[in-house]
Amino acid sequence: MRTTPLTRRSALLGVTAAVGLSAAALTLPAGASAAPLRPERPTIVLEHGAFADAGSWDGVVARLQRAGYAVVSAANPLRGPAADAAHLRGVVDRIAGPVVLVGHSYGGTVISQAAAGLEGKVKALVYIAAFLPDTGESSLGLTDKFPGSTLGRAVESVSYTLPDGTRGEDVYIEAGKFRGQFAADVPADKARLMAAGQRPVAAVALAEKSTKAAWKTIPSWALVTTQDLNIPEAAQRYMARRAGARTTVVDASHAVSVSRPDAVARVVERAARAVR
Description:
Elements: H1 8-11, E1 43-47, H2 58-66, E2 71-74, H3 81-93, E3 99-104, H4 106-114, E4 122-128, H5 139-144, E5 155-161, E6 167-173, H6 175-182, H7 188-196, E7 201-202, H8 203-207, E8 220-225, H9 233-243, E9 246-250, H10 256-259, H11 261-274
Parallel strand pairs: 1-2, 1-3, 3-4, 4-8, 8-9
Antiparallel strand pairs: 5-6, 6-7
């Protein structure tokens, strides 16, 4: 692995990887009791962001399941907004009934594009320490609008060549810097596991511009994190205010779904109840 001192212009975005569901979306922790699923309730679909995986929602999933919601924690390919949105739409298409889409970080960019044209099915968008880009904007460009992100000094990259000769570059957070940069309020042992299992984002995904902004036509909610070193608080507030999102502010790091799953689940439930 070669370390590349990516500037803030090539470091601040992320999300992509593969297909799949978190184990937490299918089972409850031992001893947990779930309320019976209620058909009138929307299915909650969770989209993680860069440097995380579907398991980063586990605490949120458990709380939503106990409240009686069907939950899908999707695997984000983290290759770029267009490709990732197409993947997420496939997940949504196989779900019967209404859906609430929830995106963390770069996952917000993905849900904004994936939900466009699905107003009859996607009833709410929930942004958790996330990007809410307008058309023509990129995650990187939005981060560059405001000071405060230190992600560019914490990342390293891996270059690769595909069988057809195409070259690419994936971006990771350096293991030794992961907790301080991404998950400062997560216990150290848990943060080490997150660092070891982090999903890289394609470097090109950070600069790819969005082509749709579903928050213009679908009700939105936002959770803003005040100790975020990936997406500055000012950037999050700007995007949420522009979208007219109902906003909750939490004193937490970027990894708020892990450190404060209770707060995240409350915001998601608030959105789900409002659109039933």
